[in-house]
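CORE FACILITY INTAKE
Project code: CF-77B
Contact: R.S. (postdoc)
Sample description: multi-component assembly, two entities in total
Requested service: structural model of the whole complex
Turnaround: standard
Below are the sequence entries exactly as provided by the requester. Do not edit them.
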Amino acid sequence: MKIVLDVYGGDFSPYELVKGAVDAVSENTGFELVLFGNEKEIQSLLKQLEYNGNRITVINAPETITNDDIPTEAVRKKTNSSLVAAINYLNENSDAVGLVSAGSTGAVLTGSVLLLKRIKGVNRPALCPVLPTVTNKKVLLMDCGANVDPKPINLVQFAIMASAYSSCVLNIDNPKVALLSNGAEDKKGNSLNKETFPLLKKCNKINFIGNIEGRDILSGNADVVVCDGYSGNIALKSCEGTALTMFSMIKDGIYAGGIKTKLGYLLLKPVFKQIKNKMDYNDNGGAVLLGLEKIIVKSHGSSKSKAIKNSILQVKSLYDGKVIEKIENDIGK
Amino acid sequence: MKIVLDVYGGDFSPYELVKGAVDAVSENTGFELVLFGNEKEIQSLLKQLEYNGNRITVINAPETITNDDIPTEAVRKKTNSSLVAAINYLNENSDAVGLVSAGSTGAVLTGSVLLLKRIKGVNRPALCPVLPTVTNKKVLLMDCGANVDPKPINLVQFAIMASAYSSCVLNIDNPKVALLSNGAEDKKGNSLNKETFPLLKKCNKINFIGNIEGRDILSGNADVVVCDGYSGNIALKSCEGTALTMFSMIKDGIYAGGIKTKLGYLLLKPVFKQIKNKMDYNDNGGAVLLGLEKIIVKSHGSSKSKAIKNSILQVKSLYDGKVIEKIENDIGK
């Protein structure tokens, strides 16, 4: 089984991407990697990292897509970019099951949706990141940006797909699905929510628990939070932004407070580190684009080798967990 | 000039509300307060708080509206509730300029919008909380829940109204207005955003700086963030929820860490306190419902006396800053 890696995307490309690949094959067996990008450069990095196994193949695709490219144009024109070549490879090789990219989200979404087949019955694939909660459980927030103006039926499918992910990969039994809204009461929501609510309620493929507020996304009360891609993106980034704001306020306070607060910081360092790790995308894996016949993991643009390794292993978990088969079964039939 | 207070709303009613009223008149001059609720109980609390001035009047309105009431029904039927009586008083007395309530948001919004006059030209009043940022500036996020399905023209009016608040009360010169979206690029957004963007761009009453992501709401880059009430509510509560989650993680880490982390906590206590204060709604005042001829401040349900006092003084600041006149001038003409 093969997993493909777009080496020329993200802030720390290519070194951290190649290192992530090497670390992934060292840590886990049962898959091969196919790396796309500037072949010469990648081979030289593999040498530098003293990799001399036979589980990593490199395919030359020297063009790159940046955040400044318009996704649809880039996907159409830059066919020899590491991303498009990787997606085309996925399309043409049945033993290639998934892709990891830390490149432009727009290009990864557009390229995957345009070039790959959807799972039978799925109308709209959607982006599903894994977030930490105050408990030890994770929560899935879907959609986070792929569909800014979805219809109620799309949200029902998001719920089914994320539930499949939650049960097959995160091993949650009968995952609790909530609908993101501006209040927890049944009647809350905008027109999209109000139309979606009864459909979720009567869907027998999921365990729908009702509306949930933004305040409770990270509470652990739900295993899956369903929303349109516009609101989901805002919720996700509001959470991220607040976490960063608080870390920055703590840092400023420590600097301004003199020797006492600096000592306090040293003593509390393990606590801060633990929280940072919990909130850190490097540990939580990438966002999964669910709904296609291949597994697409969009790793954070600032991913270092650890995040890349985790995203590769995440593709393997999704494959081993038979998420696509589960979605096919729950939606396609 | 009179400010009215709905004493029977919020988790700490009536004591903290009455105490907030007494504290407000002690701290600031230039206004009188009219308190609505169970007159006997309020008078007895005023006595207990040793208030014997003549700036607080009490009007008996013994019914109460709770979060379980359906707002439209409650407003129509419970005419002798502290909230509805207070709003009616506002309507009938030209020297009564504004209301503070910590009661059900739905009832406060519904009651105010149904019973009070809108500023000439304003189509939809909207809710505007004041949020902290990493800098010392505040940011206004409007709308946060009054209009879940607004039209582009409503968002333009939200921008004008919040700009008026920012310049007249927070003394921001030419406040920077951003449109909340799922990316900072001009073309990002759902269909509502895409229609609103060009209207904001050509509006000469505001200083529009483009789209802003959820991540940057608290960055201080914008003075006003405009959005529909559904997304705004989700953004606001996602920020609140993450802040609470992080405090709870820090607390758990400290407890689990033994004597070292507990000592660290003691040394860092002033830093945590400062951050808590900065993030605290008790210090940031209530959310203002802008667009009506009277000033409505919805204080947090968990408001203690300090938050109530601040909300009362906030009404005074809005009155002194002539926000309603500014909105009338910018929208009505």
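Facility notes:
- DSSP finds twelve helices and twelve strands in chain A.
- The CA atoms of residues 183 and 213 of chain A lie 5 Å apart.
Invoice: internal transfer
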